[in-house]
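Priority: medium. Attachment 1 of 2:
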């Protein structure tokens, strides 16, 4: 199993990840969902300064459940990534190299991933408690008024993922079904 540390320090490393590989992600991730993405992109389009440096970073599509006393964060499973597809090309333009969520991505996002030399990792829906155990710290960076949808920074250790779309645009959601369809014949 490969390991990936965020922020990415070697862009060539991203190119070494291939669709279907299992990956353990550690380091600093930004967390954002639909509403935060929309606000962020609106700021970008208006030419406003964005107070977060996304260069070589990762965005995890997630909105955590409330934490109980003594917990760092509540259960924090992935959000369906396709909901962010309209915003993703600009997020990649801001320097993000790793996207983390669940589910398929649009052809436009796959092209943007190729253009910007990024990757999309899928993590596991239904595993919110397991993922919660990987989070070592969290803090809100922007849009606190959005509650669970605020942009956060979390520190993770060994977050389990699979390369769903690699930097060449290969897509596990296309390859997997084709592979198993052949085996059924």
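Attachment 2 of 2:
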């Amino acid at each position: 199993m490969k390991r990936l540390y965020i922020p990415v320090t070697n862009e060539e490393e991203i190119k070494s990840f291939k669709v279907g590989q299992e990956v353990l992600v550690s380091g600093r991730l930004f967390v954002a969902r639909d509403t935060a993405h929309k606000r962020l992109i609106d700021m970008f389009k208006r030419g406003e300064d964005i107070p977060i440096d996304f260069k070589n970073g990762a965005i995890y599509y997630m909105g955590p459940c409330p934490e109980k006393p003594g917990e760092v964060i509540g259960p924090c499973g992935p959000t369906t990534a396709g909901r962010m597809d309209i915003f993703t090309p600009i997020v990649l333009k801001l320097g993000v190299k790793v996207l983390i969520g669940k589910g398929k991505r649009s052809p436009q996002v796959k092209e943007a991933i190729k253009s910007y030399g990024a990757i999309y990792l899928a993590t596991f829906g239904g595993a919110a408690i397991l993922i919660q155990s990987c989070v070592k710290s969290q803090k809100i960076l922007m849009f606190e008024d959005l509650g669970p949808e605020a942009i956060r920074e979390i520190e993770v250790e060994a977050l389990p993922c699979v390369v769903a779309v690699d930097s060449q645009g290969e897509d596990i959601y296309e390859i997997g079904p084709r592979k198993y369809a052949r085996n059924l014949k």
